[in-house]
Inverse folding.
């Protein structure tokens, strides 16, 4: 039955058949033991405005939107240009404005097994499992992007949370193909780092599974206890999955098989108004794709983020640090290797990740004070394996496993596995139609994440899970 | 017992026949890559159907919005060929077209697809037209080695440009604004503009001198651009190539450099040059 429906001429599956299919696959996921394994809704990029401009279906640029296909990646790398002398706005109808919105009404269930809550005795704190569920909706993204002229591209993304509070997720301009070469492209503004495994094009949306654990991990400092019922976490904020502010040079071969980039970034984790200090970070990537027979395009790459962050303010006002005057910078880095493997309809992404924080950052210590006794620079390793099965452009099955293992704790007295993470996500997206005008997906996903020793009082494992299904659409 | 054996035989015979009927006969062969239509079908319905349509007739959902209609694979008339006018192109011609894309149209370059994927797409595209089952591709024309570039060659090419009346469509300066330009239509009865040499260095069917030679020796089928294969000799065709390159005034080719080194050439190029930008200040024609 399922095969029969899926084998219907594409894009002509009736609404009824779509719902029947969605229901049956949804139930099969529910009943499948594999789905009973342990996954925030972020800003995700998929831009039907481009599909409308070029008259191409979503499936040209996206393996399954928002995840890019190699063709879509080249289009992006080329400054949102096809390169046929028809990219500049002068060739578009004057009424064309490249705007897309995306939002996801959904039902979701969230569960966390050990949350610190008030106990029966006044003043006491105990751990409790908290479950909640209901209908909801995601934040709203307004993507506006494209070309201002030949070889000048831009992207502006006002994005809201689900209360409607907006911020700018991306604001950049880019000079493309400078000196007539695809090896010289300069971007300026707030942008997504050149991550091959893009968190902005992630196929999972739930609170637990909507981001990559490895991209946001920061080591825990010390376990919680009954007298101090919360786990101490590092205070500086950084995520390789967060959009950053700066300038980027990017180069690629015409066929996009080889890609390199280097970015100079303000050390503010993408926040506006220079809130931290006057430091700069660097992000570097390189990758190479190659063909293996009829399997498809394979890609291997490496990346490194070298950063620093201030540990105390140079000036205070009423005891509060004056924004932008942070000093006492201490370093951190993240690096890794990535492989993207295609076996016809199946693709597998593998990633190795390594992280290091200065002992000052790891122990939340200002650089003008001595380190706590025994404090050392924390290090960790991580891995990711994500598989997608593209049954056809309308149906994609998604599975991901991530792990993070501490290799050196901030304090040797911490348990060796304190802060380790395992996270599993599974789901599917079904697109009842594919067109060059708009996108719609039935989205279902289950995700679970366990962090060792992170329960706030008992120091036991902290497990959280999300189940989400919804209508994900963009126009 | 015999009846059961006969039934089994009939079943297998039927299955083999069904397989033979359901397997599209068309394949493609480009170098070491053999394309298969079933694999190409999946790619076509991911990337191509929006413009070229479900049945490959160039009538996809976007076709009404495109000023140059997508290729009609059912008619199987192709512009970019190495084969004589009126014949089918080679698989390699189609492969090069998919890889290159088409300048000034919405057909992009599909160079990001693997060689195998492009070969598969070609195999599938060929299933749309019965022509591929009935006819063989034409024999690629022979392109003699390019003679050395000389001033005489350019000047002779210029004479040919006049004699063959290329200017009627392309204009005297090659800007695609000749007296006939506004009246031209393609085989779909759609208005079509002659190539504007001053716009860059690429052509619809390539960007090398070799490609340019082939364009006017094979013609662009389905457009008003005829084949001159029976009209001029190969050495004359090369002279025309050399002259046409001098019309590409925004591309620093050896031909343009040589042409500008003469007083006559320098004056002609200067007169044809636009300064400033089309939308900026300082425009001077």
């Amino acid at each position: 039955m399922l095969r029969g429906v899926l084998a219907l001429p594409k894009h002509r599956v009736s609404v009824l058949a779509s719902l029947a299919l969605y229901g049956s696959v949804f139930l099969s996921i529910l009943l499948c033991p594999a789905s009973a394994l342990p996954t925030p809704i972020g800003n995700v990029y998929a831009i039907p405005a481009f599909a409308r401009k070029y008259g191409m279906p979503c499936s040209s640029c996206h393996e399954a939107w928002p995840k890019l296909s190699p063709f879509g990646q080249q289009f992006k790398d080329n400054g949102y240009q096809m390169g046929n002398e028809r990219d500049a706005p002068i060739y578009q109808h004057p009424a064309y404005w490249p705007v897309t919105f995306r939002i996801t009404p959904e039902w979701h269930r969230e569960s966390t097994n050990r949350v610190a809550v008030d106990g029966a005795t006044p003043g006491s704190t105990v751990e409790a499992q908290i479950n909640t569920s209901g209908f909801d909706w995601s934040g709203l993204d307004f993507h506006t992007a494209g070309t201002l002229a030949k070889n000048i591209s831009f992207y502006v993304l006002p994005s809201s949370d689900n209360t409607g509070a907006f911020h700018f997720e991306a604001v950049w301009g880019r000079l493309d193909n400078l000196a007539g070469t695809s090896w010289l492209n300069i971007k300026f503004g707030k942008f997504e780092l050149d991550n091959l495994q893009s968190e902005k094009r992630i196929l999972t949306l739930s609170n637990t599974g909507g981001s990559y654990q490895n991209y946001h991990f920061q080591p825990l400092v010390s376990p919680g206890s009954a007298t101090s019922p919360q786990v101490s976490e590092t205070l500086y904020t950084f995520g390789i999955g967060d959009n950053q502010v700066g300038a980027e040079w990017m180069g690629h071969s015409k066929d996009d098989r080889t890609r390199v980039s280097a970015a100079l970034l303000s050390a503010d984790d993408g926040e506006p108004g220079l809130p931290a200090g006057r430091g700069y970070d660097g992000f570097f990537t390189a990758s190479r794709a190659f063909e293996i027979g009829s399997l498809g395009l394979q890609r291997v790459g490496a990346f490194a983020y070298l950063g620093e962050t201030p540990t105390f303010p140079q000036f205070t006002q009423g005891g509060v640090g004056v924004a932008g005057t942070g000093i006492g910078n201490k370093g951190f880095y993240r690096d890794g290797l990535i492989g993207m493997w295609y076996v016809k309809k199946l693709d597998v992404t593998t990633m190795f990740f390594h992280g290091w924080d200065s002992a000052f950052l790891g122990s939340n210590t200002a650089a003008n004070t001595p380190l706590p006794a025994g404090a050392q620079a924390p290090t960790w390793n991580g891995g990711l394996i994500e598989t997608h099965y593209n049954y056809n452009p309308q149906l994609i099955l998604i599975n991901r496993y991530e792990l993070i293992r501490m290799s050196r704790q901030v304090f040797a007295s911490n348990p060796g596995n304190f802060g380790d993470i395992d996270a599993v996500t599974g789901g599917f997206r079904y697109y009842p139609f594919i067109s060059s005008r708009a996108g719609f997906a039935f989205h279902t996903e289950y995700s679970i994440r366990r962090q060792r020793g992170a329960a706030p009082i008992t120091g036991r494992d902290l497990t959280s899970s999300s189940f989400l299904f919804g209508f994900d659409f963009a126009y | 017992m015999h009846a059961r054996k006969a039934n089994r035989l009939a079943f297998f015979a039927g299955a083999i026949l069904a397989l033979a009927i359901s397997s599209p006969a068309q394949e493609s062969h480009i170098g070491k890559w053999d394309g298969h239509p079933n694999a190409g079908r999946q790619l076509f319905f991911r990337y191509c159907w929006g413009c070229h349509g479900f049945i490959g007739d160039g009538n996809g959902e976007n076709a009404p919005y495109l000023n140059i209609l997508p290729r009609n694979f059912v008619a199987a008339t192709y512009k970019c060929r190495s084969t004589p006018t009126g014949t089918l192109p080679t698989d390699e011609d189609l492969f090069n077209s998919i890889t290159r894309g088409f300048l000034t149209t919405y057909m992009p370059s599909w160079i990001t697809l693997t060689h195998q994927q492009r070969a598969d797409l070609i195999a599938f595209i060929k299933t749309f037209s019965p022509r591929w089952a009935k006819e063989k591709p034409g024999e690629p024309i022979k392109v003699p080695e390019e003679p050395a570039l000389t001033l005489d060659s350019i000047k002779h090419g210029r004479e040919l440009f006049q004699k063959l009346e290329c200017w009627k469509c392309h204009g005297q300066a090659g800007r695609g604004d000749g007296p006939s330009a506004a009246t031209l239509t393609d085989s779909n009865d759609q208005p079509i503009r002659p190539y504007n040499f001053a716009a860059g260095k690429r052509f619809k069917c390539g960007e090398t001198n070799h490609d340019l030679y082939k364009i006017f020796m094979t013609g662009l089928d389905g457009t008003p651009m005829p084949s001159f294969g029976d009209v001029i000799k190969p050495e004359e065709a090369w002279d025309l190539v050399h002259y046409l390159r001098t019309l590409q005034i925004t591309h620093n080719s050896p031909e343009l450099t040589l042409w500008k080194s003469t007083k006559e050439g320098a004056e002609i190029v200067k007169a044809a040059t636009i300064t400033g930008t089309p939308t900026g200040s300082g425009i001077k024609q």
